């Protein structure tokens, strides 16, 4: 049987999309697949069949396609609070279907490229404007 026919989907830490190693116990984060580091004991997360033609060689569940089809990210980077696609389609887009900001986050319209609709609460009242309305400095 060809390599990708085995179902290797798993839920890694904090319910992030993962890749199941041959031992059927180790679940590697999607973004750790084809990163040059052998996370599975036998190195199956770095095999040529899997990593030879990114993202086409990856199983679909490991990939998220950004609104700009020239870009893709690993599925565990979707809804992680960071603007990985560059246009926030991985955090705010209808494709991403992200839950609202969690308790560790402040909801606003950030101006910083790094974030999209929520900023980490640790950035509240840090003297730096992260939200267009300055709500992170005055209300948060």
From TrEMBL:
Its main location: membrane. It is a single-pass membrane protein. Residues 99-138 form the LDLRAD1-like C-terminal domain. The keyword Magnesium does not apply. InterPro entries: LDL_receptor-like_sf, LDLR, LDLR_class-A_CS, LDLRAD1_C, LDrepeatLR_classA_rpt. Signal peptide: none annotated. GO terms for biological process: vesicle-mediated transport. GO terms for cellular component: endomembrane system; plasma membrane. It is found in: Endomembrane system; Membrane. It holds the Pfam family Ldl_recept_a. PANTHER family: LOW-DENSITY LIPOPROTEIN RECEPTOR-RELATED. This is LRAD1 protein. It comes from Hemiprocne comata.
């Amino acid at each position: 049987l060809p390599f990708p026919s085995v179902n290797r989907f798993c839920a890694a830490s904090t319910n992030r999309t993962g890749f199941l190693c041959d031992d059927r116990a180790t679940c590697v984060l999607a973004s750790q697949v084809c990163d040059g580091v052998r996370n599975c004991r036998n190195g199956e997360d770095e095999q040529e069949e899997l990593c030879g033609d990114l993202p086409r060689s990856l199983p679909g569940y490991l990939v998220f396609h950004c609104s700009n089809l020239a870009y893709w990210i690993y599925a565990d980077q979707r809804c992680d609070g960071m603007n990985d696609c560059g246009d926030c389609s991985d955090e705010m887009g209808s494709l991403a279907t992200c839950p609202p900001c969690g308790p560790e986050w402040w909801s606003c319209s950030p101006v910083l490229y790094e974030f999209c609709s929520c900023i980490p609460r640790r950035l509240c009242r840090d003297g730096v404007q992260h939200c267009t309305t300055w709500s992170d400095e005055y209300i948060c």
